[in-house]
Protein backbone atom coordinates (compact mmCIF):
# COMPACT_ATOMS: atom_id res chain seq x y z
CA UNK A 1 0.00 0.00 0.00
CA UNK A 2 2.76 2.36 0.98
CA UNK A 3 4.55 1.67 -2.29
CA UNK A 4 1.47 2.62 -4.29
CA UNK A 5 1.17 5.93 -2.47
CA UNK A 6 4.79 6.75 -3.21
CA UNK A 7 4.28 6.01 -6.87
CA UNK A 8 1.22 8.29 -7.00
CA UNK A 9 3.15 11.11 -5.34
CA UNK A 10 6.00 10.78 -7.82
CA UNK A 11 3.57 10.83 -10.73
CA UNK A 12 1.82 13.96 -9.35
CA UNK A 13 5.09 15.79 -8.89
CA UNK A 14 6.21 14.81 -12.36
CA UNK A 15 2.93 16.06 -13.89
CA UNK A 16 3.16 19.33 -11.97
CA UNK A 17 6.73 19.87 -13.10
CA UNK A 18 5.78 19.16 -16.70
CA UNK A 19 2.80 21.53 -16.51
CA UNK A 20 4.90 24.37 -15.10
CA UNK A 21 7.81 23.91 -17.51
CA UNK A 22 8.11 26.81 -20.04
CA UNK A 23 7.28 26.14 -23.66
CA UNK A 24 9.65 27.04 -26.48
CA UNK A 25 8.24 28.70 -29.57
CA UNK A 26 9.86 30.36 -32.58
CA UNK A 27 8.85 33.96 -33.30
CA UNK A 28 10.07 35.45 -36.56
CA UNK A 29 13.01 33.01 -36.57
CA UNK A 30 13.98 33.61 -32.93
CA UNK A 31 13.53 30.92 -30.27
CA UNK A 32 11.65 32.19 -27.22
CA UNK A 33 10.44 30.64 -24.00
CA UNK A 34 6.86 31.34 -22.92
CA UNK A 35 5.03 30.33 -19.79
CA UNK A 36 2.50 27.56 -19.78
CA UNK A 37 -0.90 28.94 -20.80
CA UNK A 38 0.57 31.85 -22.77
CA UNK A 39 -1.41 33.13 -25.75
CA UNK A 40 -0.52 34.93 -28.94
CA UNK A 41 -1.54 38.16 -27.20
CA UNK A 42 1.06 37.48 -24.48
CA UNK A 43 3.90 37.91 -26.96
CA UNK A 44 3.16 41.63 -27.34
CA UNK A 45 3.91 43.90 -30.33
CA UNK A 46 7.57 44.42 -29.34
CA UNK A 47 8.27 40.73 -29.91
CA UNK A 48 7.75 40.86 -33.67
CA UNK A 49 10.06 42.16 -36.36
CA UNK A 50 7.13 43.50 -38.37
CA UNK A 51 5.22 46.66 -37.47
CA UNK A 52 1.81 48.15 -38.16
CA UNK A 53 1.29 50.20 -41.30
CA UNK A 54 1.25 54.01 -41.35
CA UNK A 55 -1.62 56.41 -41.88
CA UNK A 56 -0.86 58.39 -45.03
CA UNK A 57 -2.04 61.87 -45.92
CA UNK A 58 -3.61 62.54 -49.32
CA UNK A 59 -0.22 63.72 -50.59
CA UNK A 60 1.49 60.50 -49.54
CA UNK A 61 3.29 61.83 -46.47
CA UNK A 62 2.96 60.00 -43.16
CA UNK A 63 0.45 61.71 -40.95
CA UNK A 64 0.42 59.08 -38.18
CA UNK A 65 3.21 56.53 -37.69
CA UNK A 66 1.81 53.00 -37.22
CA UNK A 67 -1.71 54.39 -37.60
CA UNK A 68 -2.53 51.94 -40.41
CA UNK A 69 -3.47 48.27 -40.40
CA UNK A 70 -2.00 46.16 -37.53
CA UNK A 71 0.47 43.37 -38.22
CA UNK A 72 -0.82 39.94 -39.24
CA UNK A 73 0.29 37.02 -37.06
CA UNK A 74 0.49 33.46 -38.42
CA UNK A 75 0.73 30.41 -36.14
CA UNK A 76 2.05 27.35 -37.86
CA UNK A 77 1.13 28.85 -41.23
CA UNK A 78 -2.43 29.89 -40.33
CA UNK A 79 -3.83 33.28 -39.22
CA UNK A 80 -3.81 33.41 -35.43
CA UNK A 81 -6.25 35.10 -33.08
CA UNK A 82 -4.90 36.96 -30.01
CA UNK A 83 -6.39 34.43 -27.56
CA UNK A 84 -4.95 31.27 -29.15
CA UNK A 85 -2.85 29.19 -26.74
CA UNK A 86 0.79 28.67 -27.58
CA UNK A 87 2.32 25.21 -27.51
CA UNK A 88 5.91 24.12 -27.47
CA UNK A 89 7.26 23.94 -31.00
CA UNK A 90 4.86 26.52 -32.46
CA UNK A 91 6.24 28.65 -35.29
CA UNK A 92 4.98 32.25 -35.18
CA UNK A 93 5.50 34.53 -38.16
CA UNK A 94 4.47 38.21 -38.42
CA UNK A 95 3.66 40.15 -41.54
CA UNK A 96 3.72 43.99 -41.79
CA UNK A 97 0.42 45.83 -41.60
CA UNK A 98 -0.75 47.69 -44.67
CA UNK A 99 -0.63 51.48 -44.90
CA UNK A 100 -3.96 53.31 -44.91
CA UNK A 101 -4.81 56.59 -46.63
CA UNK A 102 -6.82 59.21 -44.75
CA UNK A 103 -10.39 59.95 -45.75
CA UNK A 104 -11.51 63.17 -47.43
CA UNK A 105 -13.91 65.80 -46.15
CA UNK A 106 -15.57 68.66 -48.01
CA UNK A 107 -16.54 71.92 -46.30
CA UNK A 108 -17.45 75.50 -47.17
CA UNK A 109 -14.72 78.00 -46.25
CA UNK A 110 -14.90 81.78 -46.02
CA UNK A 111 -12.87 83.74 -48.57
CA UNK A 112 -11.54 86.98 -47.00
CA UNK A 113 -12.15 90.23 -48.81
CA UNK A 114 -9.42 92.70 -49.67
CA UNK A 115 -9.32 96.35 -48.61
CA UNK A 116 -8.94 99.19 -51.10
CA UNK A 117 -7.68 102.50 -49.70
CA UNK A 118 -8.68 105.56 -51.69
CA UNK A 119 -7.54 109.16 -51.40
CA UNK A 120 -5.07 110.84 -49.07
CA UNK A 121 -5.28 112.39 -45.65
CA UNK A 122 -5.15 111.66 -41.94
CA UNK A 123 -8.84 110.84 -41.56
CA UNK A 124 -10.23 107.47 -42.59
CA UNK A 125 -13.67 105.94 -42.90
CA UNK A 126 -14.93 102.64 -44.23
CA UNK A 127 -17.23 103.64 -47.09
CA UNK A 128 -18.06 100.21 -48.53
CA UNK A 129 -18.21 97.25 -46.13
CA UNK A 130 -16.39 94.16 -47.29
CA UNK A 131 -18.29 90.91 -47.72
CA UNK A 132 -16.41 87.60 -47.58
CA UNK A 133 -16.88 85.02 -50.29
CA UNK A 134 -17.36 81.27 -50.06
CA UNK A 135 -15.38 78.40 -51.53
CA UNK A 136 -15.94 74.65 -51.42
CA UNK A 137 -12.79 72.89 -50.21
CA UNK A 138 -11.95 69.18 -50.19
CA UNK A 139 -9.07 68.22 -47.91
CA UNK A 140 -7.62 65.35 -45.92
CA UNK A 141 -9.63 64.73 -42.77
CA UNK A 142 -6.51 64.31 -40.61
CA UNK A 143 -3.79 66.31 -42.35
CA UNK A 144 -5.89 69.19 -43.64
CA UNK A 145 -4.00 68.98 -46.96
CA UNK A 146 -6.15 70.63 -49.61
CA UNK A 147 -7.06 68.50 -52.62
CA UNK A 148 -9.43 70.78 -54.52
CA UNK A 149 -11.15 74.14 -54.17
CA UNK A 150 -14.04 75.78 -56.00
CA UNK A 151 -15.15 79.37 -55.43
CA UNK A 152 -18.92 79.48 -54.97
CA UNK A 153 -19.28 83.18 -54.13
CA UNK A 154 -16.70 85.85 -54.94
CA UNK A 155 -15.83 88.25 -52.08
CA UNK A 156 -16.72 91.93 -52.31
CA UNK A 157 -13.80 94.15 -51.31
CA UNK A 158 -14.08 96.87 -48.67
CA UNK A 159 -13.37 100.48 -49.58
CA UNK A 160 -11.69 102.70 -46.99
CA UNK A 161 -11.55 106.42 -47.80
CA UNK A 162 -8.74 108.68 -46.65
CA UNK A 163 -9.44 112.41 -46.60
CA UNK A 164 -8.43 115.78 -45.19
CA UNK A 165 -10.49 118.17 -43.07
CA UNK A 166 -12.30 120.98 -44.84
CA UNK A 167 -9.99 123.16 -46.94
CA UNK A 168 -8.61 126.19 -45.14
CA UNK A 169 -8.83 124.57 -41.73
CA UNK A 170 -5.31 124.71 -40.33
CA UNK A 171 -5.67 122.37 -37.38
CA UNK A 172 -3.77 119.39 -35.99
CA UNK A 173 -4.50 116.81 -33.31
CA UNK A 174 -1.92 115.72 -30.76
CA UNK A 175 -2.50 112.11 -29.75
CA UNK A 176 -0.88 109.98 -27.06
CA UNK A 177 -0.91 106.16 -26.90
CA UNK A 178 -0.38 103.38 -24.35
CA UNK A 179 -1.28 105.24 -21.15
CA UNK A 180 -2.28 106.22 -18.64
CA UNK A 181 1.22 106.06 -17.20
CA UNK A 182 2.03 107.75 -13.91
CA UNK A 183 4.64 110.52 -14.22
CA UNK A 184 4.74 110.49 -18.04
CA UNK A 185 1.02 111.11 -18.57
CA UNK A 186 0.93 113.57 -15.69
CA UNK A 187 3.92 115.48 -17.06
CA UNK A 188 2.28 115.70 -20.49
CA UNK A 189 -0.93 116.91 -18.88
CA UNK A 190 1.05 119.62 -17.11
CA UNK A 191 2.46 120.84 -20.43
CA UNK A 192 -0.95 120.79 -22.16
CA UNK A 193 -2.54 122.66 -19.26
CA UNK A 194 0.17 125.32 -19.27
CA UNK A 195 -0.09 125.78 -23.04
CA UNK A 196 -3.91 125.53 -23.08
CA UNK A 197 -3.80 122.79 -25.74
CA UNK A 198 -6.20 119.80 -25.94
CA UNK A 199 -4.97 116.28 -26.55
CA UNK A 200 -6.46 112.90 -27.37
CA UNK A 201 -5.34 110.01 -25.18
CA UNK A 202 -5.76 106.50 -26.59
CA UNK A 203 -5.77 104.41 -23.42
CA UNK A 204 -5.18 100.72 -22.82
CA UNK A 205 -7.74 99.02 -20.61
CA UNK A 206 -5.07 97.28 -18.55
CA UNK A 207 -3.36 100.62 -17.90
CA UNK A 208 -6.61 102.37 -16.94
CA UNK A 209 -7.14 99.70 -14.29
CA UNK A 210 -3.64 100.32 -12.88
CA UNK A 211 -3.78 104.12 -12.94
CA UNK A 212 -7.45 105.13 -12.73
CA UNK A 213 -6.71 108.45 -11.01
CA UNK A 214 -4.50 109.54 -13.91
CA UNK A 215 -7.20 108.54 -16.40
CA UNK A 216 -9.75 110.60 -14.48
CA UNK A 217 -7.43 113.59 -14.52
CA UNK A 218 -7.26 113.39 -18.34
CA UNK A 219 -11.05 113.66 -18.44
CA UNK A 220 -11.24 116.35 -15.76
CA UNK A 221 -8.88 118.62 -17.69
CA UNK A 222 -10.99 118.48 -20.83
CA UNK A 223 -9.05 116.12 -23.06
CA UNK A 224 -10.52 113.39 -25.23
CA UNK A 225 -10.27 109.85 -23.94
CA UNK A 226 -10.28 107.09 -26.56
CA UNK A 227 -9.77 103.33 -26.78
CA UNK A 228 -6.45 101.66 -27.62
CA UNK A 229 -7.86 98.16 -26.84
CA UNK A 230 -7.60 96.18 -23.65
CA UNK A 231 -4.07 94.83 -23.90
CA UNK A 232 -2.32 96.17 -27.04
CA UNK A 233 -2.75 93.01 -29.11
CA UNK A 234 -2.06 93.20 -32.85
CA UNK A 235 -5.61 92.83 -34.16
CA UNK A 236 -4.55 91.57 -37.59
CA UNK A 237 -3.15 88.45 -35.90
CA UNK A 238 -6.21 87.73 -33.77
CA UNK A 239 -9.46 85.87 -34.40
CA UNK A 240 -12.69 87.90 -34.54
CA UNK A 241 -13.70 86.81 -31.03
CA UNK A 242 -10.44 88.13 -29.55
CA UNK A 243 -10.65 91.35 -31.59
CA UNK A 244 -14.10 91.99 -30.14
CA UNK A 245 -12.82 91.19 -26.65
CA UNK A 246 -9.95 93.66 -27.05
CA UNK A 247 -12.22 96.45 -28.27
CA UNK A 248 -14.93 95.89 -25.71
CA UNK A 249 -12.48 95.31 -22.87
CA UNK A 250 -10.68 98.60 -23.46
CA UNK A 251 -13.93 100.56 -23.73
CA UNK A 252 -15.36 98.89 -20.63
CA UNK A 253 -12.33 99.79 -18.49
CA UNK A 254 -12.47 103.42 -19.64
CA UNK A 255 -16.19 103.58 -18.87
CA UNK A 256 -15.80 101.96 -15.44
CA UNK A 257 -13.00 104.18 -14.17
CA UNK A 258 -13.69 107.50 -15.93
CA UNK A 259 -17.40 107.39 -16.70
CA UNK A 260 -16.69 108.12 -20.38
CA UNK A 261 -18.24 106.01 -23.15
CA UNK A 262 -16.01 106.12 -26.21
CA UNK A 263 -16.47 104.82 -29.74
CA UNK A 264 -13.08 106.06 -30.93
CA UNK A 265 -10.51 103.32 -31.48
CA UNK A 266 -6.86 103.36 -32.42
CA UNK A 267 -5.75 99.79 -33.24
CA UNK A 268 -2.32 98.88 -31.83
CA UNK A 269 0.41 99.48 -34.40
CA UNK A 270 -2.28 100.91 -36.67
CA UNK A 271 -2.93 97.37 -37.88
CA UNK A 272 -6.25 96.74 -39.62
CA UNK A 273 -7.30 93.97 -42.00
CA UNK A 274 -10.53 92.45 -43.26
CA UNK A 275 -11.32 90.73 -39.95
CA UNK A 276 -10.69 93.77 -37.77
CA UNK A 277 -12.60 96.14 -40.09
CA UNK A 278 -15.57 93.80 -39.98
CA UNK A 279 -15.53 93.64 -36.17
CA UNK A 280 -15.04 97.41 -35.93
CA UNK A 281 -18.13 97.94 -38.08
CA UNK A 282 -20.21 95.58 -35.94
CA UNK A 283 -18.96 97.27 -32.76
CA UNK A 284 -19.72 100.69 -34.31
CA UNK A 285 -16.33 102.21 -33.52
CA UNK A 286 -14.51 105.00 -35.39
CA UNK A 287 -11.04 103.83 -36.38
CA UNK A 288 -8.29 106.44 -36.00
CA UNK A 289 -4.79 106.09 -37.46
CA UNK A 290 -2.22 108.89 -37.92
CA UNK A 291 -0.25 110.57 -40.69
CA UNK A 292 2.63 112.01 -38.64
CA UNK A 293 4.76 109.68 -36.53
CA UNK A 294 6.94 111.45 -33.98
CA UNK A 295 8.93 108.20 -33.66
CA UNK A 296 9.26 108.92 -29.96
CA UNK A 297 9.06 105.16 -29.40
CA UNK A 298 12.60 104.91 -30.84
CA UNK A 299 13.79 107.42 -28.19
CA UNK A 300 15.90 109.49 -30.62
CA UNK A 301 16.07 112.50 -28.30
CA UNK A 302 13.68 115.39 -27.67
CA UNK A 303 15.09 117.53 -30.48
CA UNK A 304 14.62 114.78 -33.07
CA UNK A 305 11.08 114.05 -31.88
CA UNK A 306 10.12 117.70 -32.23
CA UNK A 307 11.74 117.88 -35.66
CA UNK A 308 9.87 114.78 -36.87
CA UNK A 309 6.55 116.36 -35.95
CA UNK A 310 7.09 119.96 -37.07
CA UNK A 311 8.67 118.98 -40.38
CA UNK A 312 5.86 116.65 -41.45
CA UNK A 313 2.75 118.28 -39.95
CA UNK A 314 0.18 119.68 -42.38
CA UNK A 315 -3.43 120.86 -42.09
CA UNK A 316 -5.51 118.06 -40.62
CA UNK A 317 -2.59 116.00 -39.36
CA UNK A 318 -3.04 113.46 -36.60
CA UNK A 319 0.26 113.32 -34.71
CA UNK A 320 1.30 110.10 -33.00
CA UNK A 321 3.12 110.27 -29.67
CA UNK A 322 3.22 108.10 -26.56
CA UNK A 323 2.57 108.77 -22.90
CA UNK A 324 2.86 105.11 -21.87
CA UNK A 325 4.95 102.05 -22.49
CA UNK A 326 7.98 103.14 -20.45
CA UNK A 327 10.10 106.24 -19.98
CA UNK A 328 8.61 109.08 -22.07
CA UNK A 329 10.75 111.90 -20.71
CA UNK A 330 11.96 112.71 -24.24
CA UNK A 331 8.38 113.15 -25.41
CA UNK A 332 7.61 115.38 -22.43
CA UNK A 333 10.67 117.51 -23.19
CA UNK A 334 9.83 117.75 -26.91
CA UNK A 335 6.16 118.68 -26.44
CA UNK A 336 6.58 122.40 -25.61
CA UNK A 337 8.78 122.86 -28.68
CA UNK A 338 6.25 121.09 -30.90
CA UNK A 339 3.43 123.32 -29.66
CA UNK A 340 5.47 126.51 -29.96
CA UNK A 341 6.69 125.84 -33.50
CA UNK A 342 3.34 124.66 -34.85
CA UNK A 343 1.64 127.72 -33.36
CA UNK A 344 4.22 129.88 -35.06
CA UNK A 345 3.11 128.30 -38.34
CA UNK A 346 -0.49 129.24 -37.64
CA UNK A 347 -1.83 125.89 -36.48
CA UNK A 348 -4.64 125.41 -33.98
CA UNK A 349 -4.87 122.32 -31.79
CA UNK A 350 -8.00 120.17 -31.57
CA UNK A 351 -9.00 116.72 -30.40
CA UNK A 352 -9.53 113.90 -32.86
CA UNK A 353 -13.27 114.13 -32.42
CA UNK A 354 -13.15 117.86 -33.23
CA UNK A 355 -10.93 117.16 -36.24
CA UNK A 356 -13.50 114.75 -37.69
CA UNK A 357 -16.21 117.32 -37.08
CA UNK A 358 -14.62 119.65 -39.65
CA UNK A 359 -14.09 116.94 -42.25
CA UNK A 360 -14.98 117.53 -45.85
CA UNK A 361 -16.36 115.08 -48.39
CA UNK A 362 -13.57 113.41 -50.36
CA UNK A 363 -13.14 114.34 -53.98
List keywords for this structure.
alpha/beta; 6-stranded parallel sheet; Resuscitation-promoting factor rpfb fold; about 30% helix; about 375 residues; Ubiquitin-like (UB roll); elongated; 22 strands
Would you kindly provide a written description of the structure presented here, covering whatever features stand out?
The strands form 6 sheets. Strands 15, 16, 17, 20, 21 and 22 form a 6-stranded parallel beta sheet that branches. Helix 3 (184-195) runs parallel beside helix 9 (329-344), helix 6 (240-258) crosses helix 7 (274-283) and helix 8 runs parallel beside helix 9. The protein has helices at residues 2-20, 40-43, 184-195, 205-210, 212-220, 240-258, 274-283, 302-312, 329-344, 352-357; strands at 23-27, 30-34, 55-56, 62-64, 72-75, 78-79, 91-95, 100-101, 104-111, 115-118, 123-128, 133-140, 146-153, 158-163, 171-179, 200-203, 224-227, 264-265, 286-287, 292-293, 318-322, 348-350. It is 31% helix and 27% strand. The longest helix is centred in the first third of the chain and has 19 residues, at 2-20. The model is unreliable at 8-18 (pLDDT under 50). It has 3 domains: 22-101, Beta-grasp domain (Ubiquitin-like (UB roll), Roll), CATH 3.10.20.30; 104-161, Single Sheet (Resuscitation-promoting factor rpfb fold); 164-357, Glycoside hydrolase/deacetylase (TIM Barrel), CATH 3.20.20.370. It contains 10 helices and 22 strands. The protein is α/β, with parallel strands linked by helices.
Amino acid sequence: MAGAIVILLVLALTAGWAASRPSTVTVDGVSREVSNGATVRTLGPGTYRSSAGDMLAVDGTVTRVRGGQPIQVLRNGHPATPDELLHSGDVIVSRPGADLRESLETTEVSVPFAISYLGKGSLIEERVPGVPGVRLVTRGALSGVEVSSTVLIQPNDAVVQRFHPRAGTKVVALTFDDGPWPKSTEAILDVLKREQVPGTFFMLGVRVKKAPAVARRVVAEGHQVANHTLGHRLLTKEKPKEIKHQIRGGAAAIKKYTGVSTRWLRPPYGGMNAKSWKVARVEKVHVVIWDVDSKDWTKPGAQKIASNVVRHAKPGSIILMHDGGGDRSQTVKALPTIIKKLRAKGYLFVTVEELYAVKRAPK
